[in-house]
Amino acid sequence: MSVQPQQLSAKKIPTKFVLLAMLFPLFMAFAYPGSYVSAFYNPHPRDMKVEVIETSPQASQISQEITAEADDATDVSTVPDVDTAKDDLRHLDTRAAYDPSTGDLYVASAGSRQATQAAQGIFESVAKQSGTSLNVKDIKTPSENDSTGTSFLYLIIGATIAGYMTATMLNAFGPRTRVRTRLAVQAVMAVAAGVVETAISYAVFGSFDAHIMPVALIITGTFFTASVVQMGLFDIIGQAASLIGLTIFVILGIPATGVAVSYDMMPGFFRVMNQLLPTGASSELMRRSLYFDGNGVGTPILVLAVWLLIGAGLLWMGSLRSRPVPPMGSGEDRRPPRTSDEPLLTAYTDDAPSPGDEPRTASQPAR
């Protein structure tokens, strides 16, 4: 008597699931160019802050003329002296300050070479009309090996995406791992990212030559914030968090950093995103720490702290939803206590035995 081999039949996937799966690449094909092109297309000054120094009776008139000609491209104000103008530049409160009595234009190109060039173009026409040659004096320049002043952008991008991916991998391979264990892993990874990226920037390429500790801390904080927020999103909305996190940190987050294109040369929507998203805060914090002696770091630190609290709040709400409180006196526990020989990263599933269950033999079916 011959035994016929068992034939395996493939399970047909419903067409509606295939169509739903195709929505993701279609979304990416639309979202990436839609976001990046709209942010970077035709950059020009939008309410760019510039100053005229009151060293000449014509200062107020020049300010009014620039406002009339430039319309909403510039936000012109006057300051009493050169020292005040330089102080505003060091705090990134203005892009350029013009001295009509000497033709000097004070700028800080470390804030943004693109914005500096745009401001310089505005005052070149002013100096030409008054018959004065424009003398550009740059009081804050990027380091020698970071001539464009944008190298730190890639540190922020690397830390943000690595934090996002860490949370994604933890969700994929240990979805039921305890929150404190996942937070510990993320903290270790954040410190490692800070060390690695700082070593690459300083030791390998020599992009920067000072403020090594603030740079390492910013990278670590950026990584940890992105990771905690993404982990909280997973605990609340599940796999849809991948798309939400990608939108926050990459599709909107990278254009909104205000580094590739200065924030005051982008459309209004991305100017708002620059102020609200963690990538914009991290980039501004890095720029001010590297080149402006930490002036004005309070606001970006606050923004990052708020995002970290949002992530912590999401984790807390997710823990309430995934771990119902057992009745008092029932002796029930959702997860068995960890034994001394149990690995730290332990994924618990819904069919994991509770402490009161009897051990199952190989012949006994799963309940």
Can you give keywords for this protein?
single chain; 367 residues; alpha/beta; 11 helices; 5 strands; 7% strand; disordered C terminus
Sum this structure up briefly:
54% of the residues lie in helices and 7% in strands. With 367 residues, the protein is of the alpha/beta class.
Structure description:
It is built from eleven helices and five strands; from the N terminus they run H-E-H-E-H-E-E-H-E-H-H-H-H-H-H-H. With 367 residues, it is of the alpha/beta class. Strands 2-1-3-4-5 form a five-stranded mixed beta sheet, sandwiched between helices. Strand 1, helix 2 and strand 2 form a beta-alpha-beta unit. Helix 5 packs antiparallel against helix 6, helix 7 packs antiparallel against helix 8 and helix 9 (268-276) packs across helix 10 (278-291). The two termini are 37 Å apart.
- Order of secondary-structure elements: HEHEHEEHEHHHHHHH
Helix content: 40-55%
Query: Order of strands side by side in the largest beta sheet?
Result: 2-1-3-4-5
Strand content: 5-15%
Distance between the termini: 37 Å
User: Tally the helices: what do you get?
Assistant: 11
Class from secondary-structure proportions: alpha/beta
Unreliable parts:
328-334, 344-352, 354-358, 360-367
Average of the residue pLDDT scores: 85
From the spread of the alpha carbons, the general shape counts as elongated
Say how many strands there are.
Answer: 5
* Radius of gyration from CA coordinates: 28 Å
Q: Characterize the main sheet.
A: 5 strands, mixed
